[in-house]
Amino acid sequence: MNNKGTFKNRDINTFLTNYQSLDKQTKKPFEYLNLAYSKQFDFSPIKKQSYSSKANDTQTQYKSLQEASFLRQSTLPNYEPTRCSSLKNGIIKAYAANTNQGLVRDYNEDRVSIILNIIKPQSRENEQWPKCSYFGVYDGHGGSACADFLRDNLHQFVVKEPEFPWNPINAIKKGFETAEKCFLQMAQDSFNKGIPERSGSCAVVVLIVGDSCYVANVGDSRAILSTENGRKVIDLSKDHKPELEKERIIKGGGQVYQTHGVNEDGQPVLGPVRVNPGRLSVSRTFGDIEAKFEKFGGNPKIVIAEPEIKHFKIVNQHDFIVLGSDGIFDTMSSKDVINGVWKDIQVNQNTKDLPQMMSNAVESVIKESLIRKSTDNVTLLIIAFSVTPLREEEIRVKTISYIDKLVKIPQSSNPSNLRLSKFNDENNPFFMNAQKLKQNPKLTKFNFEDNLRYRLIG
Hints:
- The chain is of the alpha+beta class.
- The chain has one domain (8-240, 282-390): Phosphatase 2c, domain 1 (4-Layer Sandwich), CATH 3.60.40.
- The chain is 28% helix and 21% strand.
- The protein is built from 13 helices and 15 strands.
- The protein has helices at 8-17, 58-66, 68-71, 145-159, 168-192, 246-251, 289-292, 326-329, 334-348, 354-371, 402-406, 415-420, 434-439; strands spanning 42-43, 83-85, 94-100, 110-115, 132-141, 200-209, 212-218, 222-227, 232-235, 255-262, 268-276, 286-287, 308-313, 318-324, 378-384.
- The chain has a 7-stranded antiparallel β-sheet.
- Strand 8 (222-227) and strand 9 (232-235) form a beta hairpin.
- Its main location: membrane.
């Protein structure tokens, strides 16, 4: 399949020409594709704090990490407000996300993508789709071009697969494969023009279709599920580290090795385990053309972009999902992260504002990872379903269905009470607003009003 020109008109100019100035990071991780979308987002209530950093003075930044003044700060260095939203889509009640370049690096190669309501392609407008949402965290390396590409396009490759949304697993596999081929072709075109494009990116994605959740992971970013008010912590993804995939790598003709060094006190220290070809500390990525193309000394069987996918049903016991780049998990375990979120929830539960609470929790976890001396970019995204201290006080009603029509409804002396017992359940993937049904009797149960709001941030 030739995808050479698929995104040429849309992305190729900014995508490749910006590579030379990647250290300046003129493109922000949360840049909106359409400025109008920004009006739909709320921001963290914490006031932005001015901060001046010495970008190239690593020792100064390490010292600032240890200073008590930093530990007392209410905001992060290089702080940008957390993006959060109180808009709902089916079982998703709220979300919040933030990314920070950290204390050592003067650039941020992490990216975030959120599409709260996926819009059907015009060619399939007559189909009845369940409610679908997409969330992605992309941890770039060697430049931000690959992470930018995934943020802007990976969801489109998945959604435009003919099997979506009825066979999400196949749609994810084929969409990821096409995205990988397309970016590598673009990188090849860049090399042919004398502009080396060496960047790559990890990706962890959550796709929610109705009440089903699909988690796809390529690399060492991570997805975690909190259940039963944080009493259980479930890893939804497996870190793709060279030491954990050593058998596959060696069988394919690659090597796994560990770097050695000496610290400032003259003591020997072990560096990260890496894979060759590529010299990467992660065994699955998008991009990284020099690790994959034989003409550059690569091997396509070693560093791969094949996702591992986990599928489960979202139930009442599920609280929220956390997505994070490896900068978070370099210093915190999965349980540390979930406990950190719940600790912040307990402190702020009197606000009874779920988006604000999730926003504060995101910032608390990011700050904690930096206090623990994470030296990478750090990114965290929370997708909230139902948090016990904030369970909404709203009337829950049953969905009108064919089964309901077969059941004789008891007579009631209060017609209004009877009416409330029949209407909508927003957790149903084919939910339709009963008020619209009342206003227009010609509308059938499966005839959607086009009320999907398209949202995308990166």
